[in-house]
């Protein structure tokens, strides 16, 4: 077996570190739970950004509120993933969610302070805070899980 000089290709896992059948099934089920919500969010974002939702007025409100459906689907996927997880995975998820929630709380607090002095657009700052906290949650989970295995 040849070794890549840059270690770009993933190394094979040793038998001790290989995922079990239940881990593989759980990961696949999590992917299947998340996929429709992510695809729907991408499609709705494209429709919104390209202005394809039609005339202004009630249809614009409908298309805007339609984004809640994939959001609720993501909540469902997270809950289902937590129910399938073992104790260690639940603990890691709880710690990552706590970090993400803390970041969101401080970001919203900062947004409130900025709005008090009239800096920035509230809608954009809230969206940036939300997206940032989700990314921190995912990064914390990815950082926590492999490091402690």
Write up this protein.
74% of the residues lie in helices and 0% in strands. It has 149 residues and is mostly helical. Helix 1 packs antiparallel against helix 3 (68-84). It starts with 20 loop residues before the first helix and ends with a helix.
From the structure above, extract its key features.
149 residues; mainly alpha; 5 helices; flat
Task: Tell me the layout of helices and strands.
Elements: H1 21-50, H2 58-65, H3 68-84, H4 87-116, H5 122-147
Helix pairs in contact: 1-3, 4-5
- The H/E string reads HHHHH
- The helicity comes to over 70%
Give the strand content: under 5%
**What is the averaged pLDDT score?**
81
From the spread of the alpha carbons, the general shape counts as flat
Give me the Rg, rounded.
20 Å
Spans of at least 5 consecutive residues whose pLDDT stays below 50 are none
What's this, in brief?
The protein is mostly helical and 149 residues long. The protein has five helices and no strands.
């Amino acid at each position: 077996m040849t070794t890549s000089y840059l270690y770009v290709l993933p190394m094979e896992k040793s038998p001790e570190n290989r995922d079990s059948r239940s881990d593989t099934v759980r990961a696949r089920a999590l992917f299947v739970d998340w996929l429709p919500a992510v695809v729907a969010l991408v499609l709705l974002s494209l429709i919104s950004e390209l202005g394809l939702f039609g005339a202004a007025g009630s249809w614009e409100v409908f298309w805007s509120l339609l984004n809640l459906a994939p959001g609720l689907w993501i909540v469902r996927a997270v809950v289902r993933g937590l129910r399938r997880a073992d104790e260690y995975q639940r603990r890691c998820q709880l710690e990552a969610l706590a970090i993400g929630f803390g970041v969101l709380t401080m970001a919203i607090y900062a947004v409130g302070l900025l709005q008090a002095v009239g800096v920035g657009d509230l809608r954009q700052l809230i969206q940036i805070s939300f997206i940032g906290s989700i990314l921190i949650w995912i990064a914390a989970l990815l950082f926590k899980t492999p490091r402690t295995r």
